[in-house]
Amino acid sequence: MKKTVCALHSELVRYGLVAWTAGNVSGRIPGEDLFVIKPSGVSYDDLTPDTMVVCDLDGNLVEGDYAPSSDTAAHAYIYRHMPEVGGVVHTHSTYASAWAARGEAIPCVLTAMADEFGGEIPIGPFALIGGDDIGRGLVDTLKGHRSPAVLMQNHGVFTIGATPKAAVKAAVMCEDVARTVHVARQLGSVIPIEPKHIDALYDRYQNVYGQRSSK
Amino acid sequence: MKKTVCALHSELVRYGLVAWTAGNVSGRIPGEDLFVIKPSGVSYDDLTPDTMVVCDLDGNLVEGDYAPSSDTAAHAYIYRHMPEVGGVVHTHSTYASAWAARGEAIPCVLTAMADEFGGEIPIGPFALIGGDDIGRGLVDTLKGHRSPAVLMQNHGVFTIGATPKAAVKAAVMCEDVARTVHVARQLGSVIPIEPKHIDALYDRYQNVYGQRSSK
Amino acid sequence: MKKTVCALHSELVRYGLVAWTAGNVSGRIPGEDLFVIKPSGVSYDDLTPDTMVVCDLDGNLVEGDYAPSSDTAAHAYIYRHMPEVGGVVHTHSTYASAWAARGEAIPCVLTAMADEFGGEIPIGPFALIGGDDIGRGLVDTLKGHRSPAVLMQNHGVFTIGATPKAAVKAAVMCEDVARTVHVARQLGSVIPIEPKHIDALYDRYQNVYGQRSSK
Amino acid sequence: MKKTVCALHSELVRYGLVAWTAGNVSGRIPGEDLFVIKPSGVSYDDLTPDTMVVCDLDGNLVEGDYAPSSDTAAHAYIYRHMPEVGGVVHTHSTYASAWAARGEAIPCVLTAMADEFGGEIPIGPFALIGGDDIGRGLVDTLKGHRSPAVLMQNHGVFTIGATPKAAVKAAVMCEDVARTVHVARQLGSVIPIEPKHIDALYDRYQNVYGQRSSK
């Protein structure tokens, strides 16, 4: 799991979702009340499986030579309250964060967005770092939507998945649709997709797309 | 053809037209009612000639270890109805998809656009995946235009060519002009090019540009 | 000179000024009425010094296995009428071409623009390819300005320099300032720089910047 | 220090903050009234520790084979008047320079901005190169703000830090937030962060983030 989580961080760099040391990926260790997460303030170039740290579901450091990510409490809160989640990603990616700075959900106007997010990408509350406020805002917002991504007001984006890889995919797709819908709206009105079509696209994508054994 | 189609996928990555596993290229096998296409939901990093799959013109899998792209029906419809087409490309590239989300054709205001597209890049209908609706919308729209690219409303872009490489070129140029015209329009009105000048540019480019033996 | 001109094409790719086979660099052969230019429609990956072609100042092919760039007539016109020019570059770079699609000069609101261009980047006329119209439009526009770059309406940008490298630098800086001024204007009015300050910046940069022996 | 300063220049290239030879990094030599800075007008590809030059705090060349950066006087002025500064960076990065071209400070509407800049990124005066005007404008503006970055009107951005690396980090984060806030503002109003929350975020980030021994 340390190796997997470490390798997935390079996808954040490849897709331009992070600057300097911002952003982080975590993954739940299957069958244990533990998760692996990025150390705090370490350069992406310097990440190796050995620098990854292990925390319990209260966010306490259990194993590792570094202090855990300053967003660890938010990851831990999600793992505590959503047992189906196996991976969490956080970034300040440009377009998603821009919607978040206006406190505005991203409307579902692209079939790729219906596929992956099943509707709008919702906006969560403003919350200060350092306690359970971010985690609670995330879980409360996720419960009302099919979207695996939540924009946190004035902050950035968190995504979840059954695996860390699925959460990274959601982070990549979130920025991609945040950018495309932004660009579309710059020159006029976008055409909404009817709810029944969103449902049809979401159902098909979740059940038919990709190879049988993996998503 | 598997090797050619596989290699062309890396051009989609190089030009930033695709995110994660979205997008696909196909190529007709000369002299046979078959075409090669990308497998569904496989990472661009993992594509090799052996992972490419072969389908018949009804979109049925004929050869290959993977399920074909979920857009296979649209590719097959084009090959069935347009015998002159040897390659098809589909992407959700940002700027082309943004025009598509507004349901707006891209006006011909650049000489490079007159060269390659012979006029505006048209907009096709909203259509759900899973049957012949996308293919039919594409073919109907292509018939009324010289453009090898069609924007599908709320979806993305499909391009055609005599070869898969020509279709990839059209996809690259489509995003390039979609971006430039978008940027131009952000700060005011663009100057149209007179139809007679569009015709002159298109004729010259299709017949004179490049080396004699290839386009 | 073939080696120099070939190598400079990779700068156009590095700075994202060109898509597919668009764009070209040429360089006058010192002491001769000849210049080296890119072959027409050849991929940037496939350019080698041997693929470069040599033309006379009327744009006729003198040496080389390929047809010369379709913009050769415009380059030749500049070399014929401006003996001080040793290099010419042409691109359809996004932001410069966007200003060109509106037929609008780029105002001088950045000190880096005063340094390199000595004022606005002017707009030249709409002109069809295939004769001397583009070249004449370029030379006429260059004569009224200090700028080594001209935006050709609905088309793209041409830059000149004492050497091919200086022309490439002007093409890179032109796109850079076209982008920054575009972005600045998106959210309101830009502050002009007083003409006397533009003169002071231009004079200093042309005479003091860089190492003594080279620019 | 020459090695450190040389290596940090590649971060400016990696994050796309500089075009051609623009931009520069300097670092104070601990315990001496000297600093290391980039030579003027040398390509980023050609920078090696040996090409770096050493200047005294009046900006005079003390050691090195090249003329120092044309921005050396501004760096020297900062080192003379702000003894706590160990590194200075200057760029014309696109989004920061766009705010500067409008003469507009960047409002603090992102938690990442509160973390790093402790409030708005302020705008300094228009000042001509060649004397102490730029340096004076910078130091005067820095004194009224917690921000390690200042936008100089019509020019670009300067950042400071306790080390050259911290100044480079500030330059990277400045462009990142300049871009995100720009994008946010394009589609409407951004939500301000309350001053008490900005204070809480800034205090926490400056004191808790990262590993104990380094920032």
UniProtKB/TrEMBL annotation, chains A, B, C, D:
<dbReference type="GO" id="GO:0019323">
    <property type="term" value="P:pentose catabolic process"/>
</dbReference>
<keyword id="KW-0862">Zinc</keyword>
<protein>
    <recommendedName>
        <fullName>L-ribulose-5-phosphate 4-epimerase</fullName>
        <ecNumber>5.1.3.4</ecNumber>
    </recommendedName>
</protein>
<dbReference type="GO" id="GO:0046872">
    <property type="term" value="F:metal ion binding"/>
</dbReference>
<dbReference type="GO" id="GO:0008742">
    <property type="term" value="F:L-ribulose-phosphate 4-epimerase activity"/>
</dbReference>
<dbReference type="GO" id="GO:0016832">
    <property type="term" value="F:aldehyde-lyase activity"/>
</dbReference>
<dbReference type="InterPro" id="IPR036409">
    <property type="entry name" value="Aldolase_II/adducin_N_sf"/>
</dbReference>
<feature type="domain" description="Class II aldolase/adducin N-terminal">
    <location>
        <begin position="3"/>
        <end position="182"/>
    </location>
</feature>
<keyword id="KW-0479">Metal-binding</keyword>
<dbReference type="Pfam" id="PF00596">
    <property type="entry name" value="Aldolase_II"/>
</dbReference>
<dbReference type="InterPro" id="IPR050197">
    <property type="entry name" value="Aldolase_class_II_sugar_metab"/>
</dbReference>
<dbReference type="InterPro" id="IPR001303">
    <property type="entry name" value="Aldolase_II/adducin_N"/>
</dbReference>
<dbReference type="GO" id="GO:0005829">
    <property type="term" value="C:cytosol"/>
</dbReference>
<comment type="similarity">
    <text>Belongs to the aldolase class II family. AraD/FucA subfamily.</text>
</comment>
